[in-house]
Design brief:
The chain is mainly β and about 270 residues long. It has one domain. Helices cover about 0% and strands about 60% of the residues. It contains one helix and 17 strands. It has one helix spanning about 100, and strands spanning about 40-50, 50-55, 60-65, 70-85, 85-95, 110-120, 125-130, 130-140, 145-155, 160-170, 170-185, 190-195, 205-210, 215-220, 225-230, 240-250, 250-260. The strands form six sheets. A three-stranded parallel beta sheet has the order 1-6-11, with no helix packed on it. A three-stranded parallel beta sheet has the order 2-7-12, with no helix packed on it. It has a three-stranded parallel beta sheet with strand order 3-8-15, with no helix packed on it. The chain is elongated. The termini are close together.
């Protein structure tokens, strides 16, 4: 009895980027020469270099609030506030079914799924003067199913990726899955300094100082603050869920899922 592989948690009703690669030979006397396989591959590169950003009391707020509830299928969300942030969501799916094509199943070579991610950041200069970076996911993606990728970044030079590759062949002899992630960050400079008051009423409180019998209003000094948060989210989710939340500068984040499914009783 042939075994079957069911990948229902990943909701194959994905409204995704479908990459189908099937090679098969009409069944005949030499069925062993037939080849049926499925290959799904993602190769992504994010490069960020030789940039300079100076923030003076700049407010960067990136948030997802009350969104994606009960979402299903393939969902990709990117939210960024700031400069030179890089975000991406990618999905590749390959299936092979020779029984559907020829009416007879042909044992084949294999199912291959691979993911390659490269993130490089170098020679970037960032100067902050009293600016807040706030990245948050609140009350979102509860009850979501399928393949869900969320990236939220506030600040500068942040790199975020969510990748999913799936290869499935009911008649494959072998199933190979591989994921390679390269992240490198070098030669970057970040300088966080105090700044003057934020440009909102709640932070415009003035202090007074005495000088020669006169009172002069002096603005508050404000620090550079980075806040990344996840609250009341992702409850009851199922499937593959990748979430990246970054606040500040030069963060690198990546989530990768690679699945290859074949048949262990086809020989």
């Amino acid at each position: 009895m042939k075994s079957s592989v069911l990948l229902s948690p990943l909701a194959f009703a994905l409204a995704a980027v479908l990459a189908t690669s099937v090679h098969a030979t009409q069944p005949g006397n030499s069925a062993s020469s037939g080849a049926s396989g499925a290959t799904a591959k993602i190769s992504d590169t994010q490069l960020n270099f030789n940039n300079r950003v100076t923030n003076h009391e700049t407010k960067n707020n990136a948030s997802i609030d009350g969104s994606l509830r009960n979402a299903s299928g393939n969902v990709g969300v990117n939210v960024a506030a700031g400069d030179n942030n890089q975000q991406a969501n990618a999905a590749a799916i390959a299936t092979a079914d020779t029984a559907f094509v020829f009416g007879v199943a042909v044992a084949g070579s294999g199912a291959n799924a691979s993911t390659g991610v490269e993130q490089k950041a170098y020679s970037n200069n960032l100067s902050n003067y009293g600016n807040p970076n706030n990245a948050s996911v609140n009350n979102s993606a509860n009850g979501a199913t399928g393949n869900v990728g969320v990236n939220v970044a506030a600040g500068n030079y942040n790199q975020q990726k969510n990748d999913t590759t799936i290869a499935s062949s009911e008649t494959a002899y072998l199933a190979n899955a591989s994921a390679t992630v390269l992240q490198s960050s070098n030669g970057n400079v970040t300088d966080n300094n105090q700044g003057t008051a934020f440009e909102d009423e709640s932070a415009l409180a003035l202090q007074t100082s005495s000088s020669g019998g006169s009172w002069w209003p002096q603005p508050d000094k404000t620090p550079s603050v980075n806040n990344a948060s996840l609250s009341n989210s992702l409850g009851g989710v199922s499937g593959n869920v990748g979430v990246n939340i970054a606040a500040g500068g030069g963060n690198q984040q990546s989530n990768s899922l690679t699945i290859a499914a074949g048949c262990n009783a086809c020989r």
